[in-house]
Design brief:
The chain is α/β, with parallel strands linked by helices. It contains 10 helices and 14 strands. The longest helix has 11 residues.
Length: 261
């Protein structure tokens, strides 16, 4: 293996996982060999409960970046080593703006709470819950927002999300608003993104960013692709993501040849 890269961070959806949510055997085999040679972790917008089965199956050996970087979780220690939350006032502003849009808002309360909180059980919400195998609960999002949640995930028509994102940034300046998938918009605590989290984790592990590889497929992956010594985009990623990357691959398993691993 090339001695240049000591930490590998992989997005899950659209990167390690197939559209059906499974890990292709070629990718699982590649990662099984990689964890014997380097630090390997996940960098995902998924919650702890949603990401844990994949982390355990893949045997990742470094703390995982979850909720797009709001939490860095050490599975070996069973605890968060970094956690950031939305300020209550900003969270309330997000809900106020979303009331004027036909979107489904999901609230993530805490790392140790696997429940996704919603105001009502709509079709997009139910489809999301099936995809990520997470429990749903109807609740007063306004009240939960006052506790300072980890993040919001907003599901809506792709053509409406750019306008909503602009209004959210105006109403709650300082919060991170990012397009996670075609029909997902996520609102995160101030200063939170995968790039900042990756830089923090690299420092924690005492690894220079130049010795880090980051792999992703969405705009939410751009910060870590840009910060890493080697940024890798998936071939199906949007143009802006592929243009920012140093390498573009159709499958993560191709990195074995690209890096001579």
């Amino acid at each position: 293996m090339s001695p240049s890269y000591r930490l590998f961070a992989f997005d899950l959806d659209g990167t390690l996982l197939s559209r059906a949510g499974s890990i292709p055997p070629s990718i699982e085999g590649f990662l099984a060999g990689l964890v014997e040679k380097a630090w390997v972790t996940l960098a995902t917008g998924r919650s702890l409960a949603s990401a844990r089965p994949y982390a355990e199956r893949l045997g990742i050996n470094a703390p995982a970046i979850l909720y797009h970087g709001a939490v860095i979780w050490d599975f070996s220690a069973g605890k968060a080593i970094l956690e950031r939350r939305l300020p209550p006032q900003g969270a309330a502003a997000v809900l106020e703006v979303c009331r004027n849009f036909p979107v489904a808002v999901q609230l993530y309360r805490a790392s140790d709470d696997p429940t996704v909180y919603v105001s009502e059980f709509s079709r997009p919400v139910l489809e999301f819950a099936r995809k990520e195998s997470l429990p749903l609960k109807e609740g007063d999002l306004g009240q939960l927002a006052r506790e300072g949640p980890l993040k919001f995930l907003i599901i809506g028509a792709p053509e409406q999300l750019p306008g909503l994102a602009a209004l959210l940034r105006e109403a709650a300046p300082g919060l991170t608003v990012v397009r996670a998938e075609r029909d997902y918009l996520e609102v995160l605590p101030p200063g939170v993104d995968k790039g900042e989290a990756l830089a923090w984790l690299a420092g924690y592990l005492r690894i220079p960013l130049g010795e880090v590889v980051a792999v992703g497929d969405q705009e939410s992956d751009l910060p870590m692709i840009r910060r890493a010594g080697l940024g890798v985009a998936m071939a199906a990623a949007p143009d802006v993501v592929r243009q920012a990357a140093d390498v573009v691959v159709s499958s993560v398993a191709e990195l074995a040849d690209v890096l001579c691993l």
